[in-house]
């Protein structure tokens, strides 16, 4: 049985050793003309598309099952917790975000689908990071009797996929939180918006 992931040590990372991120000192002037300084983290992997990453919302359609979506569970060292997330990944150097969304969905979940929509470039933590992303919606159409596909994970990836009926997603995330897992903000916002549309409008 695999061991549980754990933090062994946390130490400062010299800039010369950083492969994926860098710190930036941003000098700027505010609306009154006052000089100010801002500290930010930036990815070092942004390719020609100008988009760092994609996250993927999935709609699975099946002849006899309710519309469902796919979420993933994986341990994230920065928060020392198993996180509940949308499938997601970095956009390769010469890849478009649209192509990355279909590729990442297949790699992380095994499912192949068709891109239905992709958002403008958006940010999730602009007070801390220059990182940006696009949010894709991919449709997966299944037939009766289709077997669950195999994931195409890379070495070192430990990702558990979970297929959830969309109408049960919000309650499932609440349960995961109660179990001690950490829910990613993008997934929570999507589920909470869906829940609000059903129950509050």
TrEMBL record:
CDD domains: NUDIX_ADPRase_Nudt5. Residues 49-187 form the Nudix hydrolase domain. Pfam families: NUDIX. Keywords: Hydrolase. GO terms for biological process: nucleoside phosphate metabolic process; ribose phosphate metabolic process. GO terms for cellular component: nucleus. One of its GO terms (molecular function) is ADP-ribose diphosphatase activity. InterPro entries: NUDIX_hydrolase-like_dom_sf, NUDIX_hydrolase_dom. This is Nudix hydrolase domain-containing protein. It comes from Clathrospora elynae. The lineage of its organism: Eukaryota, Fungi, Dikarya, Ascomycota, Pezizomycotina.
């Amino acid at each position: 049985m695999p061991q549980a992931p754990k933090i062994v040590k946390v130490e400062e990372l010299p800039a010369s050793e950083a492969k994926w991120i860098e710190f930036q000192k941003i000098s700027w002037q505010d609306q009154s003309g006052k000089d100010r300084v801002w500290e930010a983290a930036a990815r070092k992997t942004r390719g020609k598309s100008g988009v760092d990453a994609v996250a993927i919302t999935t709609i699975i359609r099946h002849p006899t099952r309710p519309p469902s979506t796919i979420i993933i569970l994986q341990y994230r060292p920065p928060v020392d917790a198993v996180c509940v997330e949308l499938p997601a990944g970095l956009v390769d150097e010469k890849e478009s975000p649209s192509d990355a969304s279909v590729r990442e969905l297949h790699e992380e979940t095994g499912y192949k689908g068709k891109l239905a929509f992709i958002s403008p470039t958006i940010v999730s933590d602009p007070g801390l990071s220059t990182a940006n992303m696009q949010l894709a919606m991919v449709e997966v159409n299944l037939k009766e009797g289709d077997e669950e596909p195999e994931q195409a994970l890379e070495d070192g990836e430990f990702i558990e996929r979970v297929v959830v009926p969309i109408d049960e997603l919000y309650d499932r995330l609440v349960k995961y939180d109660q179990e001690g897992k950490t829910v990613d903000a993008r997934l929570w916002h999507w589920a909470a918006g869906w829940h609000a549309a059903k129950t509050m409008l």
